[in-house]
Amino acid sequence: MGDPPLSQFPNSVHDVWLEVGFGAGEHLVWQAQNHPNIALIGAEPYEMGVAKLLTKLEETPLNTVRIYEGDGREIIEALPDQSLGRFFLLFPDPWPKSRHHKRRFLQMEMLNQLFRVLRPGAELRFATDDKSYLPFALERLIAHPGFDWLARSSADWKFRPADWPPTRYEIKAIKGPPTFLRFARRTTAR
Ligand SMILES: C[S@@+](CC[C@H](N)C(=O)[O-])C[C@H]1O[C@@H](n2cnc3c(N)ncnc32)[C@H](O)[C@@H]1O
């Protein structure tokens, strides 16, 4: 079990959250602004997205944000066990054709990795507007022995929680009603 990788961050920081595929970075910046004692790591291979986040950080400097310009899978593999307090995967590329489903980010093997790097009680947040990614993700998250769905009623997944700002994709490109999933990492796998 590893401590959060905090040596890179100001002393006031006590936890690390990771967002994979941050797009233009508006959700990541909001989380960093609203949680000054949390370090936010963002992974995004899309150069224009990284440039947009850097521009935002020039306007609003935040010394708790770090950017990984690359594949989120690489950074997750490199993280120590139980080092993250929260993970965000918001409107990941849907890969709608069945033959491309294997390219989707949220695979069972990825959930094994996320179970490893998240601490007990840590939240995994996922959003999609894609009709087939929703059952694909739910099937895997519910089947995985290491996560519990936090929803108690349909309102919990139909509406964005107050501490979850809309992303650029959600505002501009959304194709259907979005779904917001919150799962908690169990202490031990079932
Ligand atoms: C549909 S966009 C959504 C962006 C943002 N989350 C939003 O809601 O506005 C999906 C993003 O995931 C990024 N992405 C795709 N595969 C990725 C990977 N393996 N690691 C990190 N980011 C990835 C893409 O470059 C793209 O910016």
Can you describe what's shown?
This protein is α/β, with parallel strands linked by helices and 190 residues long. Helices cover 31% and strands 23% of the residues. The chain is built from seven helices and seven strands, in the order βαβαβαβαβαβααβ. α2 links the parallel β2 and β3. The longest helix has 13 residues. It is globular and about 40 Å long. The protein binds S-adenosylmethionine (SAM). S-adenosylmethionine binds next to α3 and α7.
Strand content: 15-25%
SSE order, one letter for each helix or strand: EHEHEHEHEHEHHE
The average pLDDT is 95
Major beta-sheet overview: 7 strands, mixed
Major sheet: arrangement of strands: 3-2-1-4-5-7-6
DSSP helical segment count:
7
Ends distance: 19 Å
Could you please say which CATH topology applies here? Rossmann fold
DSSP E strands, number: 7
Bound molecules: S-adenosylmethionine
Content-based structural category: alpha/beta
Under the CATH scheme, which class?
Alpha Beta
The figure for the number of domains is 1
